[in-house]
Structure formats: C-alpha cells, structure tokens
Amino acid sequence: MLESPEIDKGEREPELSDNTKIEWTDATWNPVRGCTKITPGCAHCYAETFAERFRGVPGHPYEQGFDLRMVPHKLLDPLRWTRPRMVFVNSMSDLFHMGVPDDYVG
Ligand code: SF4
Known about the structure:
Blueprint: E1 6-7, E2 27-29, E3 32-33, H1 46-52, E4 69-70, E5 87-89, H2 102-105
Parallel strand pairs: 1-4, 2-5
Antiparallel strand pairs: 3-4
Iron/sulfur cluster binds at residues 35, 37, 42, 45, 47-48, 94.
C-alpha cells in the first residue's frame, strides 16, 4: 500500500527549467516530484539518483529526496509562460503514479 504523498508548500525553484540538458526538449516542469520503483526498468532511474543527492538539503526542491509528493504551487506555472516551447512534464516523476490523485492530474 502506498503512503500518502507529501505536499510541498513551496520552496526556491524556478517556475520552469529552461536550462535543461535533455536534448529533445526545451524545458522541464515538475508539478509532481518523486516516484516508486516498480519494474526492473527502474533499477537505474536517473531521476532517483539526482533527487537523492539533495535529500536533507534544506530548501532544495529535492530536500525529501525521491519521495513522492505533489507540488501544487507549480500547477499554475503554464499560465505565466509567455512563449511556446517543448516542455517535458514531470521529468522527475511519473504523472500517472498510483499515489497521484486523479483530480490533481485533471
Ligand atoms: S521515474 Fe520512471 S524509472 Fe524512475 S522509478 Fe519512476 S517509473 Fe521508474
């Protein structure tokens, strides 16, 4: 059984990461952070490796490491975007994780 995901109240993260090094996208946007390994394909999850490096760092977006959590203050970010770009949604999570409520996605 999944534990209730934590909800971030806010921290120091840019609204949108336009400096992504992922070559096939222009930017990343993470209204959910963290995930749960469920298949052998998750064994070398880059997102977990990245997030866990910052576990315990006060104020960092990944202060809770790779633990699943909602980041509701990020949901309205797209309304402030002023130019088109290709956005990788949840580069650091799985939007359809069982712990993410349907009404949060919808
Ligand atoms: S983000 Fe993807 S690879 Fe990483 S644990 Fe979740 S489902 Fe697995």
